[in-house]
Design a protein that fits this description.
2 copies of one chain form a homodimer.
Chain A (H helix, E strand, L loop, with lengths): L8 H10 L6 H7 L4 H13 L3 E3 L6 E3 L1 H10 L21 H13 L16 H13 L7 E5 L5 H7 L5 E6 L2 H13 L5 E5 L16 E4 L5 H13 L7 E7 L5 H13 L2 E12 L4 H6 L3 H4 L14 E9 L31
Parallel strand pairs in A: 3-4, 3-6, 4-5, 6-7
Antiparallel strand pairs in A: 1-2, 7-9, 8-9
Helix pairs in contact in A: 5-6, 9-10
Chain lengths: 352, 352
């Protein structure tokens, strides 16, 4: 290694982070902006070059003496840049949204548990409400009709109890979530909320086409799966000025893949207006992560500790229609995607 | 007006904002996410419908009695969502970056003044440093070689005095800025900083092609002008993983135009990884705004007060190469664009 060595982005992030102290695998992943598929070889290389090692008792990663010397000669003392008050998100929950979080937590405590077999995995409760607050800020919530495609996060409930939207329609494949949503709507007299069973591969029912101001989804991240989720959302929108929201992860989608996925958005007459990095954090079950055979664990080749942070995160995207909706997959067609709906080379936190 | 009326996004933002008190034209523009060309008719409509009026002494906009009644029946009490600590940006200046701002302000106090005839207009000094801090956060600054295309903001100087980049090259048409940058470099012994005269319409000199890790620019916002600035930046990049940063305004670029501009990025092998809304605020000269015949003032048809806030703002974009650089305009070609480089239907803060 010479002083002129160009560090890869991943290696730079790891070394910069370890200069501040030991970090678990999960803490390192939290900061990365590369796919797990790309990151694992980078981390292995740092281990093989003996710049980084693991603390044998905690399994956290630390700098070796050699690594410390190398890092100090290449990297200045790390500086915190994220705002500590909002954790870098730029928005905070106060007033009605603080109350909403309190209320939502009570409801979510009885929620149906996530089923990895359905590729479920919901965001932190606070993130659900931050998402709601953001749509409010952007003028996409109050007085609006909202379509939610897939809702293990219970965003539909959160939006409805805010009292702000005119209507919230949840379309979801898991009947437990549909029932739970409708039950909450009934118990709380939320006339603006309802849920229906919907498989994203089926045609979008006619009554839901061109009928909404805003869609929200948390799509699978294969090219075709993503295109399908967004197609259903777009098909639900009224027209120019209508908006959509979704997350896109780093760990299961490289920027190469983002490029492909984003292109599809522009072909659908959508423009990306906001990308908030690392905005959405997911409360995935640590037991599942360790024991389901996910490649994010199995491919590393060294043992790691149980997840100690909510490491899986995604960039929150807002898109807006600049013309008529042009879904990639037509609204009236059933699209028969099998395992390739969920699974590609970068699906490292997804069941085979 | 009925209770079921769908408010336009612009009208909703104006009424929601006026529920919190009187607002100057400039304060209203600051919050908008639509072009001035689209906004002005919306504001005029609210005046004509007598929902909004102007305070005769301050020229600020206020709700009429009718407007107040209407707003209260459609819009709930406005809730602050932006983080007050970082003003919604998600990042803050502390430690070395706080010191950097202090140092930069001293240098910038002697800067060459902006010349509207060159389509100049620089960002607030704090924004220049926030921009530097963001590139650091993203791993695009430390140890990197940086190319700046057009630098009335003096970002090159700010980056160089941070001591973090390996090299900073400023290419700029205005020889005052080139001289000032080289003078500061000399006085402060900044060996990593230099500036050269460059007209973006000229071919990118061969020594600058495929030679940088990061480019930064604040492009003009016509389709061809934007494509040209980004083409020069991209042509300067080494390859996959290299990044670029630029701003895109709301007031001079509708989302329809964003859609066209963004498409060009994807054609150039760039993917957008971050869009931070309203991140960059510009310190434009209020006298120029009022007296240069800009359409943003002249087309409104009512008198307004002198700008009382830094209202002109843009969304900060980060892009990353996912393959080889593919500039829209080849690096070795002179591109003869005339007034259409600067001017289109949405150029409302640009000289004829």
């Amino acid at each position: 290694m010479t002083a002129d060595l160009k560090l890869s982005k991943s290696a730079y992030f790891v070394l910069r982070s370890l200069l501040t102290g030991p970090k678990s695998y999960w803490e390192l992943l939290l900061e990365q902006e590369t796919s797990g598929r790309n990151f694992i070889p980078e981390l292995r290389k740092l281990l093989e070059e003996e710049l980084v090692t693991q603390d044998p008792s905690t399994r956290k990663f630390i700098l070796t003496e050699k690594g410390k010397e190398f890092a100090l000669s290449h990297i200045s003392t790390p500086e915190v840049v994220y705002c500590p008050h909002c954790k870098g998100r730029g928005i905070v929950l106060s007033g009605r949204f603080k109350d909403l979080l309190h209320e939502f937590k009570k409801i979510a405590s009885n929620r149906p548990r996530a089923i990895p077999e359905y590729d479920q995995g919901y965001v932190e409760e606070e993130v659900t409400i931050l998402r709601v607050a953001y749509t409010y800020l952007k003028g996409d919530l109050e007085g609006k009709e909202i379509l939610i495609i897939g809702d293990d996060d219970l965003t539909g409930i959160a939006m409805a109890i805010s009292g702000l939207p005119k209507k919230v329609m949840v379309l979801e494949a898991d009947e437990r979530i549909v029932e739970y949503t409708n039950q909450v709507a009934k118990e709380r007299g939320l006339n603006n909320l309802s849920a229906e069973i919907f498989d994203v591969r089926d045609p979008l029912p006619e009554k839901h086409r061109n009928a909404y101001d805003t869609f929200i989804t948390d799509p699978v991240e294969t090219l075709e799966g993503f295109s399908l989720f967004i197609s259903r959302g777009v098909a639900g929108l009224r027209g120019e000025g209508a908006s959509g929201y979704f997350g896109l992860s780093y760990v299961e989608s490289s920027f190469r893949k983002w490029h492909q996925l984003h292109r599809r958005l522009y072909d659908m007459n959508l423009v990306i207006t906001d990308i908030l990095p690392h905005f959405q954090h997911y409360a995935l079950n640590p037991d599942d992560i360790m024991n389901k055979g996910y490649r994010i664990v199995d491919r590393l080749g060294v043992e790691v500790n149980y997840p100690d942070v909510n490491w899986y995160n995604s960039a929150f995207h807002r898109v807006e229609l600049v013309g008529d909706p042009k879904p990639h997959y037509p609204a009236d067609q059933r699209i028969d995607l099998g395992r390739e709906l969920y699974f590609d080379d970068e699906a490292y936190v997804t069941l085979y």
